[in-house]
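User: I'm putting together notes for a lab meeting next week and I want to include a structural view of one of the chains we've been expressing. I don't have a solved structure, so I'd like a prediction I can at least talk through. The sequence is below, exactly as it appears in our construct file.
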Amino acid sequence: MAIKKKTISSNGSSSMNSQAPNNSPKQPQGSKGNSKWKEISKHIMTGISYMIPVLVMGGLIGALSQLIPYAILGIDPSIGIVDAMNSGEFAGFKLTLLNMAQLMSNFGFTLFGFAIPLFAAFCANSIGGKTALIAGFIGGYVANKPIATLQMVDGKWAEVVPVASGFLGAILIAFLIGYFVKWLNKTIKVSHDWLAFKTTFLIPLLASLTCMVLMIFIITPIGGWLNEGMKNFLTAAGSAGEYAYATALAAATAFDLGGPINKAAGFVALGLTTEEVLPITARTIAIVIPSIGLGLTTLLDKKLVGKRVYDKQFYQAGKTSIFLAFMGISEGAIPFALERPGFVIPLNIVGAIIGALTGITLGAVQWFPESAIWAWPLVNNLLGYIVGIAVGALFVAIGNILYRNKLIKEGKLVVNND
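Assistant: Thanks for the context. Below is the predicted structure for the 418-residue chain, given as structure tokens.
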């Protein structure tokens, strides 16, 4: 008699196989943990992938709104657009341009308000399917703009708006609602005739009501308390807390060039900058420093030490790495890191930290989560920002050139430039 065996398909679903006895070894505990983390990461990254286009469009429109007054019309960056319009110095076409710039600014930065709801919606959708999407969006919206509750204030009932749970609240509600809807879909069995009622009315209603209860009574109070506590801690820590955060963020960003640690750092930084707790300056600087620095190695080596320090195939890769860096992409540096990771990875980390701290010390502030060159008009104190990138990139380039030149002299490295 054949013994049924439960097998796991590639997508994680189970099936029954009656062809072989159940004598296969159990999956190691560590493997199960890794699989669960991969599943969680997949849902989070799905939400982020739908959120990013909104941030990009908002950033582009916001960047254009800043270019008009400060680059085209030459207004002092310390003067706001509305103040410039009220100054009486602009009329006719120039006044129309300023009006357009203000509208674009408002519209572009309004788009940022959709980022967290879209993240929660598509994260929940990734878990529980389309029936979870709307409840996820509602939860994300409330995480951004919490519902006012009635409280006794000075002996009278009054509406009080609590502290927003923000990105943390969006993550929690996305997962809770996603798995709740997934459970409802499996639990509630109806005939084919009632399927539309189940998917378009019953489950969305139950999910929305559950979302309301969770957000108002559990997630918003807890998330708001954590956010408020974090803000108070960082405020009390002052510049020391900001520099410590910047150091950790830059190091994690530069560590694996778009890998899991980089993404985890970006995930934390995105939440803090979206909620306007801390700027994302250190990350946006650290993203581009390794790619520019390692690319510069191939441009500066002969001028600095009189010889090439890489094989010839790396010299085109160096130009590509610099180009990708200005597009906000760090993966162009990966071939250089893989070639000698024991030295290059620590060098990238130190260079990113030095560059990020230099930029921040010089007053650079970036709230928009994008490091591409088109987002630079949104940076406060752009000169300090550029200097930070230059200092970090030159540290990486010069350090790499001198190290490889030393290895060549010692006969530990052979370079083929034929």
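A couple of points you could mention at the meeting. The chain is about 70% helix and 5% strand. The chain has two domains: 37-237, 242-409.

User: Perfect, that's what I needed.
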